[in-house]
Write a structure and sequence with these properties.
Length: 103
């Protein structure tokens, strides 16, 4: 769809038809789709062309920093079962990390 068609569609829909992308949803899309920041930026630009405002990269990266803050991460050694093809399962300790709190 070209720019003129897009502008005509936005004009026909009017101001009452306003969609916004909630805070954090772009970051969730990035994580779920395993995309790079470059591809997320292209996606945000595409959203902006359609009039879908979303949060900026800086606020998204601040969210990532708050989640991955060392105070929120816990790492422990716990027993896991490892299976090898053609062998019996082996139980040994391995590192396990998790996030304690999300803000």
């Amino acid at each position: 769809m070209g720019r003129l068609e897009r502008e005509a569609l936005k004009k026909a829909l009017g101001k009452e038809f306003k969609i916004t992308i909630p805070r954090g949803d772009i970051l969730v899309m990035k994580a779920d789709l395993s995309e790079t920041w470059y591809k997320v930026r292209k996606l945000r630009r595409w959203f902006d062309q359609w009039g879908l405002p979303s949060e900026r990269k800086i606020s998204q990266q601040k969210q990532v920093q708050s989640i991955t803050d060392p105070a929120n991460l816990v790492c422990e050694m716990i027993p896991f079962e490892f299976k090898k093809p053609g062998c019996h399962p082996e139980v040994r300790e391995a590192e396990f990390g998790y996030v304690t709190g999300l803000n």
